[in-house]
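Troubleshooting log. The previous structure file for this entry was overwritten by mistake, so regenerating from the original sequence record. Sequence copied from the archived sheet and checked twice against the printout by T.R.
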Amino acid sequence: QVGLDGQVLGAEMLLRWDRPGHGLQSPAEFIPLAEETGLIHDIGLMVLERACVHLKNWSTLPGVDAWMLSVNVSPLQLASDSFVDDVRATLRRVGAPPNRLRLEITESSLATDLSVLAEKMSALRQDGISWSLDDFGTGFSSFSLLQALPLDELKIDQTFVRGMGDDPSQRELVRKIIEIAEILGIATVAEGVETEQQRAWLSGMGCRVFQGYLFGRPLSAEAFHRTHVLQRQ
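Regenerated output below.
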């Protein structure tokens, strides 16, 4: 994730399964199975712990100590009664700064009791953790939901970003999303940015943070460290 000046502000943690004999598998292939079998809770905690380890390491390095790291949270994880305690325990055990952790939820997470969801989000937000709504516009959420939840960030789905070049009305739609988010005090991040033209349109609309192939493709944690962290030292 980069800012207007092209400087790295943080990253989103992605998960891939290096399946023997099959190569890297995307989350679309194994997350539904993990949710069906209940393994998603263990996997989610594993990813969260790894993210916290990275954040702890970054916090000791000048130039990257302010970076954010985003972690996706499954709706099933979020629905767990122990979710808040699990997140707190992981942060405490690893010693990571909670104000550098951002938890991402999707619109499918909103198909639940909003008051319970908002209560969990608020509890962790009081600890310094921030919240992002991922893939906005692809599901069933409404702008009224943005007011009901303690969100810090709205991620504009890549389908809208990619469609801006062919359809002026798509650009206006993205502009309105950014404007409404700004009214509500929610920052916006554009996903799937692949061209300088897309970045120029988005920055002109008021978007301040971007991620996508224009800035880099997914890397292993080790490669990310070599490519971005060590360069700042």
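Residues 40-58 form the longest helix (19 residues). Archived copy saved in two places this time.
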